[in-house]
Amino acid sequence: MLFEILTIIAIAIVLPELFIASALVVLPSDEFPIDKNANYIFNALHSSMRQWGSSLNHNGMSFFPAHMPVGTELYHGTGTPDPVEVMEWLAFEPEHALNFAWIMPDEPAVNSPDNHHSQSMKWLLDSDLARALMQQTPNTAPDPFSKRVHDNLQHPLRHTGPPPKMETGWLHTYVMKRDLRLIYIDGQSAAKSSKGTLDSQDFVFDIDVKETPWLDRNRALQMCKIAKEEWNGHIDGFVRMEHGFELILCDFKSNADMIRVERAMPNLYRDQADITMAKFWFLKAITARYHGIGTKRILLDYSRMVSAFAYAIDLFSHRTDLPRLKDISKDDRAQIFADLKKSIIHDDYEPLAQWTDWQAVADMIVTRYSDTLHELAYSPFYKSKKHIEVEINLLLRPFIDHDHRNTTLEIQRCASHFMPTNYTSSTASAAVSTITDRICSTLCIAAEQQSLDEARRNLQDLVEYLAWTSWKECRGCRRDELCFTAICMYDSKFCLSSSGISLRFKTHP
Q1: Cys staple from 108: which of 112, 220, 315, 408, with CB 3.0 to 4.6 Å?
Q2: Rounded-to-integer distance, Cα 484 and Cα 497, Å
Q3: What DSSP letter does each residue of 111-128 carry, written as one string?
Q4: At what angle do helices 427-448 and 452-466 cross, to 10 degrees?
């Protein structure tokens, strides 16, 4: 009860903007409390355009209007040196694009109406081709759909006889010739799986995938059709992630110039050790983007974020810790889609310089509290209530007026510490406000608890509620290793070196 009272007082007195934000956030029901899923929204902000958090929370539920500056360079791997003119994929890293730099058997011309992105689709759906590729490239993974051969879907004719010899293709480098307006779909929204990674596209965009749910080209074409016809051409493409970030560019000819084309290097691998080394360097390129893609290749408009977490929808009805949208009602789907359209087409455009970077605010909060909260909650170092109280008071010291102690005002100062002076009320601002208040209120309550066990329970409940991805990072990987986790929904987490897997890793429980 004390927690709820302090929380209400602190929010009402200190952060009246939160109530304004809640009123302005477009929700199907005004009674839906934004703080119900504030932790999920906060984590979506913190993990946006980051490989690490987006891999761990791979079922993305949020959409962000995005801006890609003119002059941004991206990469495309293909079986032809000819420039692309139609809808295709671009990778943010050249190593990612090189996965697709192969000349496939009987591949149609790149801009032919018959080209259904065969260089990736055959790789995904034909196990013989997949095995052939695995023998020649370090960058690919085993066929993830080999278990689907007995379903009722139509599949390409399977290759018979010895695996075909694959020839290396070309790596294209494209530069964007104008500023692009994009939609970033968070989580592992490019991962073709049945785990829910595609829910935000297939159900919110109402994509027709009844016959070929795994053929991503059909999905991309339908999304580009929505961008052109329903959003009046206000969106040029879609940013997604699997093992690396990618851009679905709806019209290459209008938006991108090919500035360089290079033939991919033939395989020179002498033995399995060479292949392992090459695989390691591919993963190294991908994991380098664990905490951001670098520079300003993408700018997100966090204030116009549209998230399924902000609606009165039961996203966890499948008795799992992973949110799903597969049972979303037609009305809820229409509401989210309509709100997304409003975030794209509107009159009150703000200059990029005025966009509030809510991810930067989330970063300040996480870096200040992450290690300390986990230590206070779980570390055996704290053996008495007095010890924890001293530590909390040191953490809250900047917000305490020693001559006039006032818990409510201390929570106020703590909770508003990282909030911008001026900002537009939004789903993002409401979630961040709720999280900072929860942290500061819990710290004050824990400091006033009578016993160590009571204080610990409050702090552990807070850590479980926040569920920050910083607490799942590998600890202790050597300089010649990388922390390898769910890059494409792998279940393992370990330190990986170029010579193999080291099981010597440390991570928080």
Answers
A1: 112
A2: 10
A3: TSTT---HHHHHHHH-HH
A4: 170
Pick from 465, 289, 457, 302: nearest CA to 369: 465
Rg (CA), the chain: 25
The rounded distance, in Å, linking the Cα atoms of 162 and 124 is: 18
Task: Compute CA distances 480 → 124, 281, 496, 500, whole Å.
Answer: 31, 11, 8, 11
257: nearest Cα among 489, 477, 85, 421 = 85
pLDDT confidence of residue 84: 95
- What pTM, to 2 d.p., does this model score? 0.82
Question: pLDDT at position 152, please?
Answer: 28
| pLDDT score of 496 | 61
Residue 151 is classified by DSSP as S
Token readout for 346 is 């509107």
Which residues are paired to 90 by β-bridges? 247
The answer to whether 309 touches 285, Cβ cutoff 8 Å, is no
User: Residue 364 in contact with residue 414, Cβ under 8 Å?
Assistant: no
Adjacent-strand bridge partners of 76: 172
Mean pLDDT by 10 residues, the chain (509 residues): 40 34 38 80 97 92 97 96 95 92 66 44 37 41 33 35 69 97 96 89 86 77 96 97 94 97 82 74 82 89 95 85 90 96 84 88 97 95 92 95 92 95 91 97 95 96 96 82 66 55 39
The number of angstroms, rounded, from the C-alpha of 383 to the middle of its chain's C-alpha atoms is: 38
Is 27 within 8 Å of 310 (Cβ atoms)? yes
Element (H, E) at 449: none
Q: What is the DSSP letter of 350?
A: P
What is the token pair recorded at 482? 């990388």
Tell me which DSSP letter residue 430 carries.
H
3-state SS class at 348: coil
Query: E-strand spans in 170-324?
Result: 170-176, 180-185, 237-242, 244-249, 256-263, 299-300, 306-307
Q: How far is CA 94 from CA 75, 139, 171, 269, 299, in A?
A: 6, 12, 8, 20, 21
Phi and psi at residue 151, in whole multiples of 5°? Answer: -85, -175
